[in-house]
């Protein structure tokens, strides 16, 4: 019977983390590498990915930075092919790339902003999952982890943003895209379960960046039962569970990591 530590050991395994160069992606990349995995971090900003990879390699971790636009099937397939060429296996795909392009709101919203937001978040996640699945199915194993959000099942309270001219709420396009990812995760889990592949979603709460408006950070803190906003490291335990053999019997799940924000 394996111990918990043995189940969390990812030595000899390989992983891709899209959007892995900054913030949440950087923390999850570090977590997987700390567990022994060879991690490829990828985004459209190749130089940033390599810069982050170099920092993590300085800590003794096996991390490679690669440029990749997750909305381009050919680029994602090339990334998966590179990992297979380098490592001979792909164990984990973390489809983390996402964001919002919100500068306008209903009833004067830009449809282009909606399309761009859905394309980056939802379409990009689907492309990454499908490319990984092609490699994982013959091996009858693998873990796909998607990134949702509390705004994938909750909307935004506009009052939280009043008087904060430098901070824009994500709005309906982002909420629709992240909601789609959560249910896409369930659909993928149903499709891929017979091949031993798990598919799960992590939905983070308020995890501000260093550049986030401090007024919004304080309002968020007051609304969270644990009385603090999250840090990127708060996702390390979640990705460690869902990407490793410790989570081998968990699939189709949306793991909410929000300090209790969504309980009231």
Structure report:
- By secondary structure, the chain is α/β, with parallel strands linked by helices.
- The chain has a single domain, classed as NAD(P)-binding Rossmann-like Domain (Rossmann fold), CATH 3.40.50.
- It is 43% helix and 14% strand.
- It contains 8 helices and 7 strands.
- The protein has helices at 4-8, 23-34, 46-57, 73-87, 111-139, 171-192, 214-223, 236-243, and strands spanning 14-18, 38-43, 63-67, 92-95, 142-147, 197-204, 254-257.
- It has a 7-stranded parallel sheet with strand order 3-2-1-4-5-6-7, sandwiched between helices.
- Helix 3 (46-57) links the parallel strand 2 (38-43) and strand 3.
- Helix 4 (73-87) runs parallel beside helix 5.
- It is globular, with a radius of gyration of 18 Å.
- The relative contact order is 0.14.
- The mean pLDDT is 95.
Features:
8 helices; alpha/beta; 264 residues; single chain; Rossmann fold; seven-stranded parallel sheet
Quick summary:
The protein is α/β, with parallel strands linked by helices.
Task: Write the topology of this structure.
Elements (H helix, E strand, L loop, with lengths): L3 H5 L5 E5 L4 H12 L3 E6 L2 H12 L5 E5 L5 H15 L4 E4 L15 H29 L2 E6 L23 H22 L4 E8 L9 H10 L12 H8 L10 E4 L7
Parallel strand pairs: 1-2, 1-4, 2-3, 4-5, 5-6, 6-7
